[in-house]
Write a structure and sequence with these properties.
By secondary structure, this protein is of the alpha/beta class. The chain has helices at about 30-35, 65-70, 80-100, 115-120, 135-140, 155-165, 180-190, 205-210, 230-235, 270-280, 295-315, 325-335, 365-370, 385-390, and strands at about 5, 10-15, 15-25, 45-50, 60, 105-110, 125-130, 145-150, 165-175, 195-205, 225, 240-250, 255-260, 320, 345, 365, 375-380, 400-405, 410.
Length: about 425
């Protein structure tokens, strides 16, 4: 095997964080004709997660090209009402705090379908989205959000600065994990940011992943998994310095890191110092802390299989809700089939009529739940449990109950 080199510091990486075996791509949803063409066996790739002894970056080897992962992407941010509202609140605060207006420029990297930038557009603040998935970018353009179809890094940043100038605010939400060439990406952020500009980066917090056994957030397009410690190290390599951090409930527990040019000399806030202290107390500065995650994953898998076995023995029907990438990791690791979960419902018309990768569970519209009246609805994107339970409140009429699987099986009342 070719030795793995850390995508942050370049050191050899040999220490296992967790090995999830061979998996299909989590967002490679199939059409029925695809399944026939592939004779029922789509490509699978090792999902072996490692931790760097030197810089402590948790990472998977980049075995799949970004083009294969993102060229025809099935994830559209706007299907989550709570995420759109989260973004609207961010925009409102950013406009006031940073004094953004008609002469400003806001750039979002991995801008998806315009879910966030649309709010700046409505406020009269000039924007530019950068999105590699052409099918998703087209939706953003239809919303009036100017979008450049490109992968971001030094080359793209240099071109866009020449065309539009440097940005007063760069937003990078849930993209840092998706970058195979981490140093090229962060160098691009530094190039595109105005000398007095501000960078806002959101990412799921590795500490929460470890503490709450969120193994289903691991899949091939998530090349890296960040603590505050490793995120700060990545920024510092390219002349950027964090000055504040917010702890967010999104995606099972995220950080919103605020940064600027190190030359700006912004003093760190109490919030930043608090998360640094919290990580140190949790042992995130010591490589030994990252051991022992695999057995916790197996315990979660065993609980899921026990629940499904008991439901089947009792004659109870189970369906899923949310054809999310995280659900595909869980379902494949657990070896779930249509005899365990009949189908998965999802609001996205892009996913309806397709099959989940690996398990080949069919994706149906949400109305199907009220036609089939299952005993249990397994909410796969557990981070959206409250939003989805509200949408499914009507299942109580026939005694239906919601259930989530991570970090443990939890059945709703």
């Amino acid at each position: 095997m070719t030795p793995v080199t850390c995508r942050l510091c370049g050191a050899p990486v040999t220490r296992t964080f967790v090995d999830l075996g061979s998996m299909p791509l989590a967002n490679a949803y199939l059409r029925p004709e695809d399944l026939e063409r592939l004779h029922g066996q789509e490509p699978r790739y090792p999902l072996h997660v490692l931790v760097c002894d030197r810089c402590l970056l948790v990472q998977v080897e980049g075995l799949v090209s970004p083009h294969d992962l993102f060229a025809d992407y099935a994830y559209f941010s706007s299907y989550s009402d709570s995420w759109v509202e989260h973004s609207r609140r961010f925009v409102s605060t950013a406009i006031t705090t940073l004094d953004l207006g008609p002469s400003s420029l806001v750039v979002e990297v991995a801008s998806n379908d315009g879910y966030l930038l649309q709010h700046f557009v409505k406020a009269g603040v000039p924007v530019l989205g950068i999105e590699p998935a052409a099918n998703v970018a087209a939706v953003a353009v239809g919303r009036g959000v100017p979008t450049d179809v490109a992968f971001f890094g030094r080359t793209t940043a240099t071109r866009l600065v020449a065309e539009r100038g440097r940005a007063d605010l760069i937003v990078a939400n849930n993209v840092l994990a998706h970058v195979p060439d981490l140093n090229d990406f962060v160098a691009g952020l530094a190039l595109a940011l105005a000398p007095d500009g501000v960078l806002s980066v959101e990412f799921p917090h590795l500490l929460r992943l470890i503490e709450e056994a969120q193994f289903d957030t691991i899949y091939h397009e998530h090349f890296s998994y960040f603590s505050l410690l490793t995120a700060e190290r990545a920024l510092a390599r390219h002349g950027l310095a964090a000055f504040d951090v917010e702890q967010l409930p999104t995606h099972g527990g995220s950080l919103r890191l605020w940064a600027a040019s190190a030359a700006a000399g912004r003093a760190p806030t109490a919030g930043l110092e608090e998360v640094r202290r919290m990580e140190a107390e949790a042992g995130m500065t010591q490589v030994e802390t990252y051991a022992g995650f695999g057995p916790r994953v197996d315990r979660c898998r065993d609980q899921v299989l026990d629940f499904l076995s008991a439901a089947s023995a009792a004659g109870h029907s189970v369906v899923g809700y949310g054809a999310a990438a995280k659900g595909n990791t869980l379902l494949n690791y657990c070896g779930v089939t249509t005899s365990d979960i009949a189908y998965v419902a999802d609001r996205s018309t892009e996913k309806q009529g397709r099959l989940l990768p690996g398990t080949h569970l069919p994706v149906e519209p949400p109305e199907r739940i009220f036609e089939t009246r299952p005993d249990y609805v397994a909410i796969l994107p557990w981070n959206l449990r409250a939003e989805i339970e509200a949408q499914l409140s009507g299942i109580a009429a026939w005694g239906g109950r919601c259930v989530t699987f991570v970090p443990e099986v939890k059945i709703g009342t």
